């Protein structure tokens, strides 16, 4: 009489299959982000992703049934990685000293990265494409608002009012985001760094003034 596979064996086989499936999905997303960096959304082809990942077209369709599903999953991965880095950076802070400097450094890591421009391209293209506009807006809002709220909460611990902390963070991110774009259209120079240092100094002085007004 043929014996039935044990529950333990079945569980291990299923887990191994799940792991293989997750590994293939990760490879597809890595290749997708790579292709988006090279070709942008307008030139993005799912066949190129499958080739780069070394998987069959059928396997790619199994995990991501359409170009839009693959693109939105790639966007979510980019934003989730950025959020993870932000939360890790905040968790490592042991004091309130130089909090704005840490916030600036975290903003530069995201906005000066290739991943930011991949995300920016997808977001802009997504807003033009009615099919994925709502999902793109939801993903962007979910992850970037989480990062924003995390930094606001940390700045509040330095003695700032929540509204003031939000204003300071918005100015900071707007400047770094603008500098990131400006760096793409001109020769490299020390100008962005000088502007960053100037804005950091201005915001630090402004934050100190707000604290004095609040606490006397």
Topology of helices and strands:
Blueprint: H1 7-39, H2 46-53, H3 57-63, H4 67-91, H5 99-111, H6 114-128, H7 133-156, H8 162-182, H9 191-215
List the keywords.
single chain, 216 residues, mainly alpha, Arc Repressor Mutant, subunit A, Tetracycline Repressor, domain 2, 2 domains, 79% helix
Domains (count) = 2
Describe the largest sheet.
Answer: none
Give the overall average pLDDT. 89
Helical fraction: over 70%
Gross geometry? elongated
Protein name: AcrR family transcriptional regulator
GO molecular function, one term: DNA binding
Keywords: DNA-binding
InterPro entries: Homeodomain-like_sf, HTH-type_Tx_Regulator, HTH_TetR, Tet_transcr_reg_TetR-rel_C_sf
Provide a descriptive summary of the structure in words.
79% of the residues lie in helices and 0% in strands. With 216 residues, it is mainly α. It folds into two domains: 1-65, Arc Repressor Mutant, subunit A; 74-215, Orthogonal Bundle (Tetracycline Repressor, domain 2). The termini are far apart.
């Amino acid at each position: 009489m043929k014996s039935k596979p044990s529950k333990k064996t079945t569980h291990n086989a299923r887990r191994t299959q799940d792991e293989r499936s997750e590994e293939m999905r990760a490879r597809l997303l890595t290749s997708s982000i790579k292709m988006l960096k090279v070709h942008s959304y307008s030139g993005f082809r799912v066949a190129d992703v499958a080739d780069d990942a070394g998987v069959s077209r059928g396997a790619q369709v199994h995990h991501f049934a359409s170009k839009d599903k693959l693109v939105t999953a790639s966007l979510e991965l980019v934003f989730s990685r950025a959020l993870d880095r932000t939360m890790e950076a905040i968790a490592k802070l042991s004091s309130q000293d130089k909090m704005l400097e840490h916030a600036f450094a975290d903003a530069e890591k995201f906005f000066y990265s290739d991943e930011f421009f991949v995300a920016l391209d997808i977001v802009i293209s997504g807003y033009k494409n009615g099919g994925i506009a709502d999902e793109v807006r939801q993903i962007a809002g979910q992850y970037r608002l989480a990062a924003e709220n995390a930094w606001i909460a940390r700045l509040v611990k330095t003695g700032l009012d929540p509204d003031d902390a939000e204003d300071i963070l918005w100015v900071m991110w707007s400047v770094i985001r603008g500098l990131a774009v400006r760096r793409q259209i001109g020769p490299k120079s020390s100008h962005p760094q000088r502007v960053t240092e100037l804005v950091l100094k201005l915001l630090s002085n402004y934050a100190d003034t707000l604290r004095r007004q609040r606490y006397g």
